[in-house]
Amino acid sequence: MRRMFENAEIPVEGLPSAETVAWQPMDPKLMRRRLAEAGIALSIVTAGIAGLQVLLGIALVDENVPINLGFLWLVPLAVGIAVVGWPLVCVPKMAYAVRERDILYRSGVFWHTVTAVPYNRIQHVEKSTTPLDRRFQLANLKLFTAGGAGGDLTIRGLPVRTAEKLRAYILDRTGTAVEQA
Questions:
Q1: Three-class SS of residue 156?
Q2: What residue numbers bound the domain in which 105 lies?
Q3: How many structural domains comprise the chain?
Q4: Burial zone of 127 (CB within 10 Å; 0-12 exposed, 13-18 middle, 19+ buried)
């Protein structure tokens, strides 16, 4: 006799928990890299405010309008606090875990996200670096999945060696040939 399709219920208490995962924290160099990026952004904002203050000062002097433009320096101060403080808060919240059948990535300060990407959904793995990443010997690993961009995962700030090892491991698990990068 032919058996009908069964779909047994699983009690919620029996589900695995993400809290029991052995999370790997991001490399400490990621914090320094993000702070350097923040410093560059702050320098650009500061240079822009200085230029704006000079241009407005020249324009207002020609019009004989007495005005104090010192308040413009509150902008780089506020931006500086935000861009320097953010890496100090968000980087410790980031972590990844490599498991037998999937890879997990955790991030988020206000909105916590845990993403699980099963190896059988991964079609392509890419390791990339920016000039700032290379300066801090870091790399980004992007996992492209079947089913569109919504399932793709990018893990930023891995040590270069770890990113290459993970890339080779994932490609081996997916049955894709490992080409040298």
A1: strand
A2: 95-173
A3: 2
A4: middle
